[in-house]
Amino acid sequence: MEKKKIIFATTNEGKMKEIRMILGDLDVELLSLKDAGIQADIEENGTTFEENAMIKAKAICELTGEMVLADDSGLEVDYMDKAPGVYSARFMGEDTPYSVKNKEILDRLKDAVGEERSARFVCVIAAAFPDGKVITTRGTVEGLIGMEEKGTNGFGYDPLLYVPEYGMTTGEMDPELKNKISHRGKALELMKERLGYENISH
Questions:
Q1: Catalytic residue flag (residue 25)
Q2: pLDDT in tens, 56-90
């Protein structure tokens, strides 16, 4: 019997690696947009992570007729009024290297101390089904913006978010630990529960 297909609406290989590790025990074929041969330019014009994740999932689902998962995630820095937030990927321009984005955030927080540096990663996963149903789950990981970039694991803003209970940034964590505590890991685990193994694997 052919495995059930789930398309994950991303072209980000770092993200796909994490997703495959977390959803690896589901008996389904997980495809990125690239794997599925889909080129789609979707305008993410929502004002919340939920809206953007749903826009992406619904658009690709309508295009393919397959079940689609999509995520919208970002970094909320309280000192910056929860920016970059939903604009995390587009902060300072989409093609700007994260080393430059991270430096900008560190510069803006140069006078912030202690709890003033509070921040979190947020991830919302949306699942769109061919019958038009859409469900979402949300995961967060709370921390502080470190004084400097640390760690070469992960991607994006990972070297910035220091998680006090582990004494390190998410960029310093090994992938297993990061996936266990990360915003994406939590949202995906919740989604896995919501989908129910029975429901999608058979």
A1: no
A2: 999 999 999 999 999 999 999 999 999 999 999 99
pTM: 0.89
Find all residues with CB under 8 Å of 60, minimum gap 6, and list them. Answer: 7, 9, 33, 38, 40, 42, 68, 70, 128
**Active site residue: 27, 72, 95, 174, which one?**
72
Q: Where are the domains of the chain?
A: 4-201
- Four-residue CA torsion sign, 124, 127, 132, 135: negative
Q: Is 85 exposed, middle or buried (0-12, 13-18, 19+ CB in 10 A)?
A: middle
Give the length of the chain: 202
CATH of domain 4-201: 3.90.950.10
- Per-residue confidence (pLDDT) for residue 198, from 0 to 100: 42
Q: Point out which residues pair with 69 in neighbouring strands.
A: 8, 127
Beta bridge partners of 126: 70, 136
